[in-house]
Design a protein that fits this description.
The protein has 295 residues and is of the alpha/beta class. Helices cover 47% and strands 13% of the residues. It has a domain of 132 residues: 3-Layer(aba) Sandwich (Rossmann fold), CATH 3.40.50. The strands form two sheets. Strands 5, 6, 7, 8, 9 and 10 form a six-stranded mixed β-sheet that branches. Strands 2-1-3-4 form a four-stranded parallel β-sheet, with helices on both faces. Helix 5 packs antiparallel against helix 6, helix 6 runs parallel beside helix 11 and helix 11 packs across helix 12.
Length: 295
Amino acid sequence: MRMTTLLACAGVLLSQLATAADALPQRWVSAGGAFSEWVVALGGESKLVGVDSTSQYPRSLHSLPGIGYQRALAAEGILALRPDILVGSNEMGAPPVLEQLKAGGVRIELLSAKPDVQALEHNLTQLGQLLGNQAQAQTLLDGYRQRLQSQAAWVKQAQQHHQAPRVLMLLSHSGGNLQVAGKDTLAAWMINQAGGQSLGDHNGYKPVSVEAMLALDPEVIIFAGGRLEGDAARAALLQQNPILAQTRAGRDGRVVVIDPTLLVGGLGPRVPDALSMLSTAFYPSAQAQTAEIKR
């Protein structure tokens, strides 16, 4: 009798667990590079059935159907994927599209694109719950915090002997006009976190004339371009905007190229690596001294 009762209880528990797992969204669409990367990091890649154009990492996401750019989504294409949930930020839209998706039974989960750890904690907590992987979410958050703390400590040490460089972040959308990153952007947060002084004193991203850029005379230029990478992107930037070669950054060859998808969706998994790379570019002599000490 006792064994029968135990088996019955076990059966009920397994049934409840199965029901809870089924209640979680199984077909995901993600709009925002950082969000897609976190879904993958939390073990949810197999649940993704579509991603937006900024979701470029990991490379395996390239095989998924595309839903366009996060700010210009089309309801018909998304509904055709039969998703249970669409994750993105308040940058996602347009609003009528989101309303149409809701009417079609798609859950809309808005995460934060703010560049701060508190927003990241909220995002990972939400994604961890929706994927049924809260423990992994906490582990990822703890590791992220540790990396940012180590980064901040390194920068503090470097700034005891070196002045923070004046940095200009330039963004180009598919070869369009250059925009300068200003306040309240992930770009400015990254510059400051890596130990630089951001020269954009406006809010958001704003087109600025090349003459104005020359007047700012940055010591370091960060370029978040389009399809080109590395030396090719750097050469194209200076070829298309030759006046930049007259800045201190251009004369000294201190033009750093980063992936523009790093700037979409708030703090993503690759941001700590990008910060380390930027700090190395901002404080090359300090990096050399660190490398020498480690030998």
